[in-house]
């Protein structure tokens, strides 16, 4: 008898044979077959007035390795006594929902054992002090009718949502180490500060967090009173910045992408590290204060402010670090006297690298100016368009001599399939399926998957995909799903997790690096269809040196830009003592992918060790892309042995922001050890005088644009010491392109690397011209002259 699983296997096998037998370039695409369900998922079936499906589905999520078998993942604040009536003080109830079950809060650095969703049905939740959020928490409001957190007039807290509370009397100590404050999300909430006296410096969200975090569909309403001290979102490096930041989105800390924000009218603060995929509206906000290493802003709207971006510049040493680089794309600014203001004039050595692209100004007299000083780029009291403009060191071809530029530069390549109808880089926020009804959701635990981290769930999950792909939203109840063979996800699938459900590969089939095995196959090769994955973690149990975590084959339908992608979905290689896996993500030739908040992390410390000790885990490769596109990457890859990104014959990629780190243990052993070179994966060249992982390696690739990147080489030779950082010798080269590829680079910062760019492994851009604080930055590079 043919089981559903074997049917799926033969279907996949058939397609693989087909694509192998024709010329790869002309391989026919096949539309998704999907499953043979009778009610295909077309549109949402929720009725007006229905709550968001997440509220009423059966709640059976668990934390597989938590010793408390009754540990509750999903917490509806109303079950903890919150009223949501705008009258009763709900602070204690919400904090009880947050903390119950010995979760990871003050005194616990990190833990994967206590994930939670704190859920808010529609309503107005009056709060009089901060909601202190614990590690590994998603705060989610009803996606159909977003609830409000209403700060009471007697509000006394530091922030309404505090992701890293200060310890009372702790002299500035906080609950978490901010660069290790992972796994958090806030969704569908309105935070209303307007009842609080405008003279009080109250903050909507204190977001001092790091990788694997997101703010989605969040609105902060603030006082419009003259002189208001309210701040929207703030993640400051020092408490001082808050005071200073009274008039803006105050942004501190490092490496940050903001996509899709609107700032209207007066006074606010935003600040965060590592926030991805934001859909944020801040009413009454003004300037954007930024600092530290590198930032990419994509799709920003600024209205009625006094200054758009206010950049503190001028520091050129690590001790005097100020704004390193700023890349701003797809912006509309209205009725604002100054779009970008720096505190010091840049003369080539004092950095403050700026790249502007696709900027519409309406009644903005100064486009770029120095505070109290010269106008660097004039604006207009009517309308003006800036195609592509930069301040900083610009390079072309093999010429290693910097050209300090304050003027127009070559615009980035934006292939037609990367942009939207308004000529902006296409963007698509994390899908939340607000219109689906409860009976359009298929929970995997209701159909035989166990998710306890031990039971082999391969067959059960495969059966669920074969039954429901394309017919239901497949909901992975919180848990850890152990699989011992390839799990095939057909095109047409929509998959979501609960507080980051884990798909964990392990066992004999993933052990041989000479015979690699895909753990999760996303679509058969050369299939077309949608495929959406949200809130999932892909991981391995024990060493799996033969595992490719995800092979991504599916291509978006012609009429659904961004139809195949992953959001807030992470790859985690942890809890292993030897080799992690062969490769994280492989984007194959026929695929397209929209990746927003896709963090491939080889653990450099143990999240479940109370001391957070460093670990040496050997992951082979980060992301290999051979895709013809379109591919959007707004994500990051860290600590793989051979490379973090490898583009081979790839086309039409937009890499909106990328941050990478070389494995801390290298060069002992030297790259590529403990892996060997495999030509099937177009592995890079390693040279005994530079035995280090490549951050990015580009061969025979066309129409790639890298817009904002920070690359760290934290070479830790003996016992994790970083002596080489100070003399820029941690590695010789880190970003390499061949002599053919058409890639354009903007706002690239490196740390600890002698050559910031090598071409055919030969050093081109030397860091010595580009030091601007903790990092070195070059503003732009293109193959042909500007
Ligand atoms: C176990 O979890 C339940 C539900 O989250 C909680 O009420 C209880 O206090 C926990 N008990 C222990 C011992 O952790
Ligand atoms: C603050 O206001 C709330 C709601 O109006 C009230 O319940 C609470 O008792 C007040 N707290 C203090 C300390 O006055
Ligand atoms: C707001 O606070 C200021 C300073 O404490 C005070 O002078 C003012 O009266 C307060 N406004 C209201 C409406 O309470
Ligand atoms: C706002 O306050 C400032 C300083 O107190 C004052 O100069 C300005 O006129 C005020 N603006 C309005 C619109 O009241
Ligand atoms: C931008 O954010 C707004 C408000 O949340 C949302 O309606 C819109 O769909 C978002 N656009 C994109 C392209 O993400
Ligand atoms: C900006 O100010 C003008 C004039 O006060 C007002 O008409 C407009 O609505 C404001 N824009 C926004 C987005 O608030
Ligand atoms: C830029 O300004 C700094 C500080 O004023 C000065 O030391 C440096 O020589 C200047 N560089 C150039 C290229 O003019
Ligand atoms: C090896 O690396 C060194 C330093 O990066 C470079 O000078 C040399 O040219 C490289 N050799 C080859 C064959 O690429
Ligand atoms: C590295 O650290 C270990 C443990 O602290 C110590 O025994 C060893 O001597 C150190 N090695 C070097 C080369 O410093
Ligand atoms: C750079 O620093 C390392 C570690 O302190 C040292 O071993 C090396 O000799 C230094 N190299 C240069 C060129 O100064």
UniProtKB/TrEMBL annotation:
SUPFAM superfamilies noted in UniProt: Pectin lyase-like
Signal peptide: 1-32
Entry protein name: Glycoside hydrolase family 55 protein
Keyword Signal appears in the UniProt entry: yes
Organism: Boletus reticuloceps
Keywords, in A-Z order: Hydrolase, Signal
Keyword Signal found: yes
InterPro entries membership: Pectin_lyas_fold, Pectin_lyase_fold/virulence, QRT3-like, RHGA/B-epi-like_pectate_lyase
Residue ranges of every copy of the Rhamnogalacturonase A/B/Epimerase-like pectate lyase domain listed in the record: 74-281, 443-510
GO molecular function, one term: polygalacturonase activity
């Amino acid at each position: 008898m043919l089981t559903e699983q074997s049917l799926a296997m033969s279907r996949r096998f058939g397609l693989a044979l087909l694509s192998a037998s024709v010329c790869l370039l002309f391989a026919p695409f096949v539309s998704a077959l999907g499953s043979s369900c009778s009610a295909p998922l077309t549109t949402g079936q929720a009725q007006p007035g229905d709550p968001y499906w997440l509220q009423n589905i059966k709640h059976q999520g668990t934390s597989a390795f938590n010793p408390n078998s009754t540990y509750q993942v999903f917490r509806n604040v109303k079950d903890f006594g919150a009223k949501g009536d705008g009258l009763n003080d709900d602070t204690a109830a919400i904090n009880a929902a947050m903390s119950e079950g010995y979760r990871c809060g003050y005194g616990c650095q990190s833990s994967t054992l206590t994930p939670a969703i704190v859920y808010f049905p529609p309503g107005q939740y009056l709060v009089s002090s901060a909601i202190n959020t614990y590690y590994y928490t998603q705060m989610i409001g009803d996606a159909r009718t977003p609830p409000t957190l209403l700060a009471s007039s007697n509000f006394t807290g530091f922030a309404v949502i505090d992701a890293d509370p200060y310890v009372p009397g702790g002299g500035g100590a906080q609950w978490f180490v901010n660069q290790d404050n992972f796994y958090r999300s806030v969704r569908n909430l309105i935070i209303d500060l307007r009842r609080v006296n405008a003279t009080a410096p109250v903050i909507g969200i204190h977001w001092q967090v790091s990788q694997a975090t997101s703010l989605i569909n969040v609105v902060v309403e603030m006082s419009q009173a003259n002189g208001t001290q309210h701040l929207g979102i703030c993640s400051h490096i020092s408490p001082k910045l808050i005071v200073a930041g009274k008039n803006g989105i105050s942004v501190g800390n490092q490496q940050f992408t903001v996509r899709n924000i609107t700032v209207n009218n007066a006074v606010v603060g935003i600040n965060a590290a590592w926030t991805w995929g934001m859909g944020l509206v801040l009413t009454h906000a003004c300037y954007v204060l930024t600092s530290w290493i590198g930032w990419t802003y994509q799709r920003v709207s600024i209205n009625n402010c006094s200054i758009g971006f206010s950049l503190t510049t001028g520091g050129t040493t690590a001790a005097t670090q100020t704004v390193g680089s700023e890349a701003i794309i797809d912006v509309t600014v209205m009725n604002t006297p100054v779009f970008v203001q720096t505190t010091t004039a840049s003369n080539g050595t004092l950095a403050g690298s700026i790249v502007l692209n696709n900027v519409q100004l309406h009644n903005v007299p100064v486009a770029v100016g120095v505070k109290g000083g010269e106008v660097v780029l004039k604006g207009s009291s009517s309308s003006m368009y800036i195609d592509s403009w930069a301040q900083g060191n610009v390079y072309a071809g093999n010429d290693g001599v910097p050209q300090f530029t304050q003027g127009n530069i070559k615009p980035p390549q934006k292939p037609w399939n990367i942009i939207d109808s308004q000529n902006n880089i296409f963007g698509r926020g994390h899908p939340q399926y607000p219109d689906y009804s409860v009976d359009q959701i298929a929970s995997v635990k209701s159909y035989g998957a166990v998710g306890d981290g031990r039971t082999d769930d391969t067959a059960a999950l495969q059966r669920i995909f074969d039954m429901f792909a394309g017919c239901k939203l497949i909901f992975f109840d919180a848990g850890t799903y152990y699989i011992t063979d390839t799990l095939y996800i057909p095109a047409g699938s929509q998959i979501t997790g609960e507080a980051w459900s884990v798909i964990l590969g392990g066992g004999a089939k993933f052990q041989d690096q000479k015979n690699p095995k895909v753990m999760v196959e996303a679509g058969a090769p050369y299939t077309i269809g949608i495929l959406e994955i949200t809130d999932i973690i892909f991981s391995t149990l024990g060493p799996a040196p033969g595992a490719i975590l995800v092979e991504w084959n599916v291509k978006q339908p012609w009429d659904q830009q961004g139809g195949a992608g992953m959001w807030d979905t992470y790859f985690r290689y942890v809890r292993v003592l030897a080799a992690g896996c062969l490769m994280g993500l492989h984007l194959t030739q026929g695929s397209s992918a929209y990746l927003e908040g896709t963090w491939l992390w080889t653990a450099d410390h143990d999240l479940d060790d109370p001391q957070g000790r460093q670990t040496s885990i050997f992951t082979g490769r980060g992301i290999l892309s051979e895709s013809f596109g379109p591919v959007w990457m707004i994500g990051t890859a860290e600590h793989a042995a051979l490379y973090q990104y490898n583009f081979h014959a790839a086309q039409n990629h937009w890499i909106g922001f990328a941050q990478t780190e070389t494995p801390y243990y290298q060069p002992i052993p030297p790259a590529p050890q403990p892996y060997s070179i495999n030509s099937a994966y177009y592995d890079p060249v390693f040279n005994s005088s530079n035995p280090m992982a490549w951050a990015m390696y580009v061969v025979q690739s066309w129409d790639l644009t890298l817009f904002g990147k920070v690359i760290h080489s934290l070479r830790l030779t003996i016992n994790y010491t970083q002596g080489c950082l100070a003399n820029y010798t941690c590695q010789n080269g880190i970003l390499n392109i061949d002599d053919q590829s058409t890639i354009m680079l903007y706002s690239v910062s490196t740390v600890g690397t002698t050559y910031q760019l090598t071409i055919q492994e030969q050093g081109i851009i030397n860091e010595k011209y580009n030091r601007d604080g903790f990092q070195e930055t070059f503003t732009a590079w293109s193959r042909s002259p500007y």
